[in-house]
């Protein structure tokens, strides 16, 4: 039977890796009759496509629902831009997201991780709902200057707008409502912030200037800042939530690796990289083909959605030795880890993602040096682009 890759199916949400293996071996340029998209799954092909923005455009969006509409959005967010607009926006944001600015957040991240982890009940808690869903959005919205009382509401909106019913490409009605409510919320907050600037990210974006098409320097308008603020919610909070939920499950399945980390905390950064490789929170990003592509005997016509499946590329035995083994000490020089993307759109928040994940793992090692997961009680999210758990019941062992 020929392989079926349905990114909106229960099968995919539960475990895509066997499907990926078959795609890499038998259909390296996969075509979905049902949804009319193509998908690349081999490491070489995905990495090359991430770099080739002239063929694989982001300007039509990076999820299937957006790309198949075939429209370029005027006021797109950075993730949905091609050069030269992308270059101009990225160089502005790079000035705000400097490694120094991120490192300066270390104390804040430690405080927020501690706050949420110390509130859980060690005899039985949900790593995701009680911990990993709470602190990343707190970090992001604190940086943005969102008032404390509204911070978790942002997360609830994002959960809603990324959710997909099984078999449905488009947002649900409540997802659309959440997207509108969140945009209105940020728009109002930005307007207010213009009148009383602070030291937060939104204030920095209000004060920054971007180079326009004609070379003029100009401040960003409220809609541009709103686009970016809402993107950061999804890109910056959901992903770290998934990485830490995945960590609890993967380490419970590989207790020797947790012991290794317990005995040598200097390996925490390696553990973060291995988690990004082994169980990528962002499984794929979609592009639109701007040119006809001929690859592995298949022709991808112009104007088609193309899935770049980083989650599969990171498990490709053509690139990695024993890719299905979770191994903190693996040789990382073998291939490019695509867990944080690659090329011009590679994760803008990579330094913050690594900092948050490393601090969370360090605190978890203190709090739960021995633990067990109730695997039967684990539940997965049904989301597009992002994959991971919504529930991971854990008990700390003495
Ligand atoms: C474990 C956590 C994270 C993962 C797995 C992740 C993954 C990714 C990936 C795969 C991309 C590439 C998207 C594409 O090529 O279309 C990306 C882009 C991006 N990420 Fe992250 N990310 C994480 C955390 C963060 C954080 C904390 C922030 C916020 C500070 C952030 C902000 C962004 C932004 C703004 C982009 C778009 C960059 C551009 O288009 O130039 N991410 N991320």
Automatic annotation (TrEMBL):
Keywords: Cholesterol metabolism, Heme, Iron, Lipid degradation, Lipid metabolism, Metal-binding, Monooxygenase, Oxidoreductase, Steroid metabolism, Sterol metabolism. GO terms for molecular function: cholest-4-en-3-one 26-monooxygenase activity; heme binding; iron ion binding; steroid hydroxylase activity. Pathway: Steroid metabolism; cholesterol degradation. Gene3D superfamilies: Cytochrome P450. Its cofactor is heme. One of its GO terms (biological process) is cholesterol catabolic process. Belongs to the cytochrome P450 family. This is Steroid C26-monooxygenase. The lineage of its organism: Bacteria, Bacillati, Actinomycetota, Actinomycetes, Mycobacteriales.
């Amino acid at each position: 039977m020929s392989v079926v890759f349905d990114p909106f199916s229960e099968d995919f949400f539960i475990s895509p890796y066997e499907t990926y293996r078959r795609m890499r071996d038998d259909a390296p340029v996969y075509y979905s009759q049902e949804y009319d998209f193509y998908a690349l799954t081999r490491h070489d092909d995905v990495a090359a496509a991430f770099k080739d923005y002239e063929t694989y455009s982001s300007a039509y969006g990076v999820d299937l629902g957006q790309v198949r509409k075939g429209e370029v959005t005027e006021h797109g967010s950075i993730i949905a831009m091609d050069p030269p607009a992308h270059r101009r926006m990225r160089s502005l944001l790079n000035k705000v997201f400097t490694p120094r600015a991120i490192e300066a957040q270390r104390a804040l991240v430690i405080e927020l991780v501690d706050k949420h982890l110390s509130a859980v009940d060690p005899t039985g808690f949900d790593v995701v709902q009680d911990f990993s869903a709470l602190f990343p959005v707190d970090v992001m919205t604190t940086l943005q200057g969102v008032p404390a009382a509204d911070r978790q509401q942002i997360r609830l909106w994002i959960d809603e707008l990324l959710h997909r019913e099984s078999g449905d490409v488009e947002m649900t009605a409540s997802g659309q409502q959440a997207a509108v409510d969140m945009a209105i919320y940020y728009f109002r907050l930005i307007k207010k912030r213009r009148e009383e600037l602070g030291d937060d990210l939104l204030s920095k974006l209000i004060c920054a200037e971007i180079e326009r098409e004609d070379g003029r320097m100009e401040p960003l308008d409220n809609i541009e800042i709103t686009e970016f603020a809402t993107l950061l919610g999804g890109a910056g909070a959901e992903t770290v939530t998934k990485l830490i939920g995945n960590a609890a499950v993967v380490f419970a399945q590989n207790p020797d690796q947790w012991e290794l980390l317990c005995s040598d905390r200097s390996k925490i950064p390696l553990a973060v990289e291995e988690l990004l490789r082994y169980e990528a929170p962002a499984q794929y990003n979609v592009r639109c083909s701007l040119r006809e592509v001929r690859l592995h005997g298949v022709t991808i016509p112009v104007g088609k959605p193309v899935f770049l499946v980083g989650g599969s590329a990171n498990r490709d035995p053509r690139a990695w030795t024993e890719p299905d083994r979770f191994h903190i000490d693996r040789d990382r020089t073998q291939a490019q880890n695509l867990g944080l993307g690659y090329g011009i759109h590679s994760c803008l928040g990579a330094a913050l993602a690594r900092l948050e994940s490393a601090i969370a793992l360090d605190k978890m090692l203190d709090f739960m040096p021995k633990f067990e997961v109730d695997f039967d009680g684990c539940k997965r999210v049904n989301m597009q682009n992002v994959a991971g758990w919504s529930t991971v019941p854990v008990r700390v062992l003495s």
